[in-house]
Write a structure and sequence with these properties.
By secondary structure, this protein is mostly helical. The protein has one domain: Orthogonal Bundle (Ribonucleotide Reductase, subunit A). Helices cover 54% and strands 3% of the residues. The chain contains 13 helices and 4 strands. The strands form 2 sheets. Strands 1-2 form a two-stranded antiparallel ribbon. Strands 3-4 form a two-stranded antiparallel sheet. The longest helix is centred in the middle third of the chain and has 33 residues, at 205-237. The structure holds fe (ii) ion (2 copies).
């Protein structure tokens, strides 16, 4: 028995999403035609909503814990109704945005396996957007008497979003090469996993029922990302790859800060818990995420050491990684520049706790100073040029950061930005 039921959505939105796909993701046909060649044991892709089962019919967290979950949006009152809509909207925007991003550099995939994996990720993100459209469209109570039709308004807005006006910053950054696809699947899809995991408790039942099936698909995205980062790092180490370790490091430096910021302000998130939407506040989820990213990169480093030191066991390789990174010294021919690391949480932040936002922290979390004062914005930009990918500095996302850093344009104060 399948772990979920399937449903299609109202033809008006079904057709609108198919039209969106034809415009933004025409390569879906290629995936469908080649599916069995690559994923023989997996059910071929289909665009429908998957309705999972709830492990508990009651609200688990927050003010209403113990009460039955809400089946209808209209049962959520006041701010709760709109906060739920904002989370669904942000979720759907990430799904659509990531398809637009992946497509830009899809053709640069070093091999067919990587290309197919990215195509499958894109298809599953499309299904996730479809899933969020199901949440909004099957429940007619998103339309309240006297209010505009919130569901319709939200879906129309989502269908018109382009890179640059998606809800979260990470989905407005255009990809420049295939390292972006791979690092994104590793560190940004991982944030997605945390969000979905937390939202299994969602007090609005249709949202909660959507999480399980989406999570099992995210497993493939994250797994592909990790496998390919390792493959590219090993290729870089043996001198056969298209990208160097330094290229990979700079790409990590560009994406991890945006991943951290997707959790919202590290001091917030209590409202989402009080409404029973999530089981953890932002700061807790963010630090769990950060630790997991560190573990992922450590495993990549183990593979790097095993490439450099033939025959070394994984536990011994791990010891070498730790010694090199703790002491900065050369161990068994391995230098710190041969390895990857996760930049500090304070590095290159544009949102979050006040004491880190737009402050000149280096990748190790040390404040860069001059005459015992933080260095100027101009000098920090010079520093960033040395640690971020060159192409990245030309994106409009970086221009926005630069303008805010130099005070040309202050970011909107207090605007909530998380999920
Ligand atoms: Fe997704
Ligand atoms: Fe994903």
């Amino acid at each position: 028995m399948a772990a979920y039921d399937t449903e299609t959505i109202d033809s008006r939105y079904h057709d609108a999403l198919v039209a969106w796909q034809k415009k933004n993701f025409p390569e879906l046909t290629f995936l469908e035609e080649n599916w069995t060649k690559f994923y023989a044991n997996q059910t071929p892709f289909q665009l429908y909503a998957k309705i999972g089962k709830l492990s508990n019919n009651n609200i688990v967290f927050g003010r209403m814990a113990g009460q039955p979950r809400f089946e209808k949006a209209s049962e959520m009152v006041g701010n709760m109704f709109y906060s739920a809509r904002d989370i669904i909207r942000a979720q759907a925007s990430t799904e659509l945005g990531s398809i637009q991003q992946h497509r830009l550099t899809l053709e640069e995939a070093p091999n067919d396996q990587m290309k197919m994996a990215v195509l499958r990720i894109m298809a599953e993100e499309l299904r996730h957007a479809y899933q969020m459209f199901w949440v909004l469209s099957h429940d007619h109570s998103w339309k309240k008497p006297g209010h505009p039709d919130i569901a319709e308004e939200t879906m129309d807005e989502l269908l018109s979003m382009e890179l640059g006006n998606h809800v979260l910053d990470a989905f407005n950054i255009p990809f420049s090469n295939f390292l972006d696809n791979v690092v994104f699947a590793t560190v940004i899809d991982l944030v997605g996993k945390y969000q979905l995991e937390m939202q299994k408790v969602f007090s609005y039942a249709p949202m909660a029922r959507s999480m399980g099936p989406m999570l099992s698909e995210e497993g493939f995205h994250i797994g592909s990302g990790r496998g390919f980062v390792r493959e590219l790092a090993v290729a870089a180490t043996s001198g056969s790859g298209r990208y160097s370790i330094n290229d990979i490091q700079r790409t990590l430096n560009a994406w991890i800060p945006r991943g951290l910021e997707m959790f919202g302000n590290e001091r917030g998130g209590e409202t989402a818990v009080a409404f029973g939407f999530k089981d953890r506040n932002n700061g807790t989820a963010q630090s769990e995420y950060y630790n997991e990213v560190r573990e992922v990169i450590e495993l990549v480093n183990v593979a790097i050491v095993q490439t450099k030191v033939p025959g070394i066991s994984a536990p011994d390789a791990r010891t070498v990684v730790r010694e090199v990174q703790d002491t900065g010294e050369r161990v068994q021919g391995v230098h710190s520049e041969d390895l990857l690391f996760v930049p500090d949480m304070k590095f290159y932040r544009k949102r979050g706790a006040e004491e880190v936002v737009f402050m000149p922290y280096d990748v190790f979390g040390t404040m860069l100073t001059e005459d015992s004062k933080p260095i100027s914005g101009e000098k920090y930009l010079e520093y960033l040029k040395g640690v971020l990918p060159e192409y990245f500095l030309k994106t409009s996302e970086f221009t926005k950061y630069r303008d805010a850093l130099l005070g040309y344009e202050r970011p909107e104060a207090g605007r909530s930005y998380g999920w």
